[in-house]
Fold:
Amino acid sequence: MLSAPVASDFGGLIPQTVSGDDTAFKGLVVRVAYKDGGVSDGRTATQTQLDAVAKQATLISGYPAKAVLSDAAHPATTRDTDTPAMNAGGLMLHGSGICSSGFAISLNNTTYTSTARHCTATPYTDRDNSSVSYGNTQQVVNLTQWRVLTQTGFYWMFDGNYATSNHKTVNGYGDVGINDYVFTSGGNSGTHANLKVTTLTAWWNDGYGVAEEIEAQAPNNGVAVMAGDSGGPVFFYHTDNVTVGASGMIQYYTGGVTGGCGSARDANPCGNKVGFTSAHATVNSIPGASLYTG
Structure:
């Protein structure tokens, strides 16, 4: 066990774990990654970088050491207990009001998380960890009713029920057309599947102005989204079932459901149809911005 931390940065590499679990090597193995990725997304590291990490580990511990490139390690947070940089689909709270976090945007070498424009009660915190803030408003995108928040965002999206720690990696846009199928990942009610796009030109006033919406309906009058899911991601799965395309942001629900609203962090009304605004159109309207992807 190291008695002091290994230096924190070697050309962008950050030590993740230290162990002695390599039986073929009699010493410490220091696993390193880049802050935003590792071997699974095609990253490489030079032997000079790895040797520098190993040398520092040996100086600190007194034991032989080697460094290997791995994937970045992130806390196994849940929707309501996320930590920076924030995933999409987290559940945010201010007072008695809840909203969800959306896809991350990269701008001027900084990443930002997001939510819906009508989620005005900033600064929000985690639903169940008031010490973690989603920050204040960085800017509002009136064209698509998005609110960009000052807290850093990450390229992961929660995927599963309201209590999940599972995630998928955002990889590109998920632009849709009529009769395509999308999924929602609201922080309050979780992921809902196979919503069929029914219109590309709905109009909705969120209380701060009208914007063009896309609507999609759940099968068999099931749940599309619930109150508190506003700001969360609308997406579809890529064929690898590991990455997702960013379609948009949840704005509203409408329509009755059959069989009740199901489980959620906070029981709220729900609807079988979701209105959402385009992620692609949002990012294109912010000069110099890009969707933050892994």
About this structure: The mean pLDDT is 88. The CA atoms of residues 195 and 218 lie 4 Å apart.
